[in-house]
Structures are given as structure tokens and as C-alpha cells.
Design brief:
This protein is mostly beta strands and 290 residues long. It has strands at 14-16, 19-21, 49-51, 60-64, 69-73, 76-78, 85-89, 99-106, 116-119, 125-126, 137-140, 145-151, 154-160, 166-169, 180-187, 196-197, 201-202, 216-217, 227-231, 237-240, 243-246, 252-256, 266-272, 282-285. Strands 12, 13, 15, 16 and 17 form a 5-stranded antiparallel β-sheet that branches. Strands 6-5-8-9 form a 4-stranded antiparallel β-sheet, with no helix packed on it. A 4-stranded antiparallel β-sheet has the order 21-20-23-24, with no helix packed on it. The protein is globular, with a radius of gyration of 21 Å. It comes from Listeria booriae.
């Protein structure tokens, strides 16, 4: 019998902001039962690789794997996006500590890979580093939330998160060197019922002339690469080869190359975060795949 795979219309993906976003295939029944468990497939030795992190403020997650596969995330099935990069729209917010169970299913044999479990981490952050006497403090969390700035555990200002979860607060006190700074976040529209908290940041003296951390490569770029993935801060703007690209809610920047790059080519990626702060540029070299 000829082996085949059937994908229902819901699994074909939609276009959002110029990037194809995989919608879940409705069920395992959409995968032909007669291909499951047929023979050995190299996919059995490949597990999904998560680009960056899954945050409790994320609505998207990006995984890397073989192009001839279906990605399974917490029981939802997703088709391949492009060249083995899977962009997944999460059905709802996750909480810190929640498990995200992933695996691949081969589209040619139906064989499953081993599972890989990731853990949701905090997406309520303060960016960049807070300096003594800061007149503005910036950060990201879930959108439409009440954000309270805490200095040594005491409220020092509040604001609403807007847009995609950005917030900024003008502290009503002077923030001394050595202070512990964090934020407390609550919903204003009942989209969640518990309190979110950021990590606690220690206020240190600024390093004159230094820039906050910029984009970072997810994987090595070779002369056969068709995609480049960076991690950044959520909704940052990264410029590469004269073109601007925006990070998603998890801080992933996906650059699709129109042509492969020559080995030995040196590239520089620059970044401006969502609060208009210039970040440290990243320079890297394309390596040979042979």
C-alpha cells in the first residue's frame, strides 16, 4: 500500500505579519494510521530543539528539526514551517514551571522520535540593567496588566503594560546603588487570576561606554543555511544585511535567506530593543558545511 499522510485544512497554517504561523492539526486521526510504526527512521534519533525559551508571557514558540516531520507540542500537531523551522502559536499562556512535551512524527514512515520536555520560564523582565538613580525603568510582561515596581520590596511606582506587554515606570523615589528591584504584575481584565513576579535585580554601577547584551545566534550559520535564528528581547528590532526583522513574544528573530551565503562571509547584526535602547552588535562568520 502506498504510504501517505493526510493533513486537514486547519493544519495548513495562516499568515501573520509576514511569517507563516502553524496552526495545530486537529488530531492524531489526521495522520494515516497505516504508516505508524513502519520500519526504522532516522527521526527516531532527533528531538525538537527549542530556539530561545518558552516564557509565561509568550504566545509563540520556535522549534528546529527535520523538514519531513510533524511537530507535536503538548498533544497538538503542527506542520513544518520552512526548512525545518517550526513556528508555533501557543493556544494559551503557560505558567512558570509548566512542562512543554515535544516530539516529531515522520511524514514518510509515521515513526515518532523520543520526547523532549521543556519548562516554562518567567517572561516578566526588566530590560536593560537598572542604574542608580534611574528615572525610567522598562520591561516586558503579559499585555493588559497592572505592573508595580518594587524597590527593596516597597512599591515605587506603577503603570499598565501596553501593546504586546511592554511597560515603563518613572520611579517616585531615588533608586540607590545596591537596591533590589523587581516588579509585581496582576491582570486588569481577568485574563489570568494569579500574580506574576519578575526576578529580583541588583542595582549596580553602570559600566561607562558599555551596551546591553544584543542578539545571539541560535545555531551556527553555514554556506548551506537557508534560515538564521537569533534570540533577542521580545519585540526588538534586529537589522541584518540591511533588512529589519522583529523578534516575537519569546524574543526569537527568524531571518529567511533568499540565497545561501558564501563561507567566510562576515556579517554584523545590530539591535534596538522595544524601548529604543541600542544593544551590543553581534558579528559572526559564515562557516563551510564541508
Amino acid at each position: 500500500m502506498k504510504k501517505r499522510i493526510l493533513i486537514v485544512a486547519a493544519g495548513l497554517g495562516i499568515t501573520l505579519g509576514g511569517i507563516t504561523v502553524g496552526n495545530p492539526i486537529t488530531s492524531q486521526a489526521a495522520i494515516d494510521a497505516d504508516i505508524v510504526g513502519v520500519g526504522h527512521d532516522p527521526i527516531q534519533n532527533i528531538v525538537p530543539f527549542l530556539a530561545g525559551n518558552i516564557l509565561d508571557s509568550s504566545k509563540d514558540a520556535t522549534f528546529i528539526g527535520p523538514s519531513n516531520a510533524i511537530l507535536v507540542v503538548n498533544g497538538q500537531y503542527y506542520r513544518e514551517n520552512t526548512n525545518g523551522v517550526f513556528r508555533v502559536r501557543l493556544p494559551n499562556y503557560l505558567d512558570v514551571g509548566d512542562s512543554v512535551v515535544t516530539k516529531f512524527i515522520s511524514t514518510s514512515s509515521g515513526v515518532s522520535s523520543a520526547t523532549r520536555v521543556y519548562t516554562t520560564t518567567s517572561g516578566t523582565t526588566i530590560e536593560p540593567k537598572v542604574s542608580p538613580g534611574a528615572t525610567r525603568v522598562f520591561g516586558s510582561t503579559r499585555p493588559n496588566s497592572q505592573v508595580t515596581l518594587l524597590v527593596n520590596g516597597e512599591p515605587a511606582g506603577s503603570a499598565l503594560s501596553f501593546g504586546y506587554g511592554q511597560w515603563n515606570i518613572a520611579p517616585r523615589i531615588h533608586i540607590p546603588l545596591g537596591s533590589n528591584v523587581s516588579v509585581r504584575v496582576t491582570s486588569i481584565n481577568n485574563s489570568y487570576t494569579h500574580t506574576l513576579s519578575s526576578p529580583v535585580y541588583k542595582v549596580t554601577a553602570p559600566n561607562p561606554g558599555s551596551l546591553p547584551k544584543g542578539p545571539q545566534l541560535v545555531q551556527t550559520v553555514t554556506d548551506q543555511s537557508k534560515d538564521i535564528l537569533f534570540t533577542a528581547t521580545p519585540y526588538a528590532r534586529v537589522t541584518l544585511l540591511g533588512t529589519e526583522h522583529w523578534a516575537d513574544s519569546a524574543g526569537i528573530v527568524h531571518v529567511k535567506l533568499g540565497t545561501t551565503l558564501k563561507a567566510g562571509t562576515t556579517l554584523t547584526a545590530t539591535m534596538v530593543d522595544d524601548f529604543s535602547h541600542t544593544r551590543e552588535p553581534l558579528t559572526f562568520t559564515v562557516i563551510s558545511s564541508r
